[in-house]
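Thread: Gfo/Idh/MocA family oxidoreductase, structure

OP (GT): Posting the sequence first so everyone is looking at the same thing. Length is 339 residues per the record. Can we get the structure tokens written out before standup tomorrow? I want them in the notebook alongside the other entries.
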Amino acid sequence: MGDRGLRNDSREVRWGILGAGHISHRFASSLKKVDGARLVAAAGRTPAHVEELSRAFSIDAAHGHASVDDNGNAAYDALIADPDVDAIYLALPHGMHTRWACRALRAGKAVLCEKPAVLSEEEALSIASTSRERGVLFMEAMKNRFCPMRTRVKDLLASGELGRIVSIESVQKLDYGESPSGYLLDPLQGGCLYDMGCYAVGWFEDLLAGTCEVSSREVRWRDVSGGRVDWADEIHMSVGGMPIHMVCDGKATYESRLTIACERGSLEIERLHRPELAHVKYSDGRTLEINAPFEIDDFYGEIQHATQLIRAGKLESPVMPLAATQRCAHIIDAIRLAL
């Protein structure tokens, strides 16, 4: 991981937000708890949403940008050009990430980008190239990488107590309802694989080395304007030769878990996208419960980490490096091409 210029660990990182939806409010609430970070600007396409976000988090009116007629383009450009903004939290729909991440990086703004950061490995390579060329930090906000549970899981597996991993299963089920967020119904960027499946893929990428091979994918489609989106997926695949069974379902009773089967037991992680609780079952009958609550909330870890990297002049995260974003995209590409 490289450095950029002189370190200045004491400087304040001034954040701007691209996108003024619900997730931006959650980000802004957590950001208030991060030392050395301050929210100074926001941009969106809906004036009322930008005004609401600005009022809620004391953003000066001069730094609240909205432009409804051009899908927010002028507002986003204005925030990126703002000299009072050091870093950008990119909370736009997935299909807009690559364009606006690259524009921000070219303007010298560090970027913390919501998951999935990209829709393809090609897009990941474009962002990585721009980040390295301009010498500016880009990090995907894959929140389960920045939760205390991830460290506990990695340490347990590294200890050898459970032996080698022999298979992994991920199950993610919820009910999106009849009128979900618009991006979920977009044939380009919608569906459950991108929206929730990316979290499971993030775990696979983190735990397993080697190439991805998909043996089967069964999909329940939902017809939408202009095409269709995957509303449920069941995938059998492997990463580095390790068998994986992956289930995503957007019309089901809630369930979220990652089960890692090992030679001498298993580890089941609840709520795999933001885990705080896990259960270990040893082959000899012993059990162990792992409690690893968030520090503040599920956004805090990733924001604190990104802020520290920016203050230290780092160009890449050791926890979610550019190569990890690229590899996650590669795995999702392989799944999407399996039909």
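GT: Both are above now. Quick notes for whoever picks this up: The mean pLDDT is 96. The domain at 148-293 is CATH 3.30.360.10 (Dihydrodipicolinate Reductase; domain 2).
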